[in-house]
Write a structure and sequence with these properties.
With about 130 residues, the chain is of the alpha/beta class. It has helices spanning about 10-20, 35-45, 65-75, 90-110; strands at about 5, 30-35, 55-60, 60-65, 125-129. About 25% of the residues are buried. This is Putative thiol-disulphide oxidoreductase DCC.
Length: about 130
């Protein structure tokens, strides 16, 4: 299975992030919302918390969450984004503290979606229910 990103399908910041990735990953990732059937299956399969408040990347059977997930994603984007991996030198606790702060406020700062946008014809095959 191709690497898959699980994202909050109700979050404007998350949707914007998915659109950003789609333009820069050369078709590397698949996508599923945390709330969807595939997302819930993968959360259970990898024994992740059901109330997960994080983007998740599952690559080669390994789930990455929070700042590890964000940095894992940048490894496969075009441009200078792979250089972000330098932040791995920071302690995970510090990176996740910043991640958690943004995650806690994302709905207030960026809003929530009332309905999901449908992917374009070109990207539809990369999304799971």
């Amino acid at each position: 299975m191709k690497p898959i990103i699980l994202f909050d399908g109700e979050c404007n910041l998350c949707d914007t992030s998915v659109q950003f990735i789609l333009k820069r990953d050369h078709g590397y990732y698949q996508f599923a919302s945390l709330q969807g059937i595939k997302g819930q299956e993968l959360i259970q399969k990898h024994r992740l918390p059901s109330d997960l408040n994080s983007v998740v990347v599952i690559e080669e059977g390994i789930p990455y969450v929070k700042s590890d997930a964000a940095l894992q994603i940048t490894k496969h984007l075009n441009g200078a984004w792979p250089l972000a991996s330098i932040f791995r030198v920071l302690p995970r606790a510090a990176r996740d503290l910043a991640y958690d702060f943004i995650a806690k406020h994302r709905h207030k700062w960026f809003g929530q979606k009332q309905q999901c946008l449908l992917p374009s014809k070109e990207t539809r095959a990369r999304f799971h229910e």
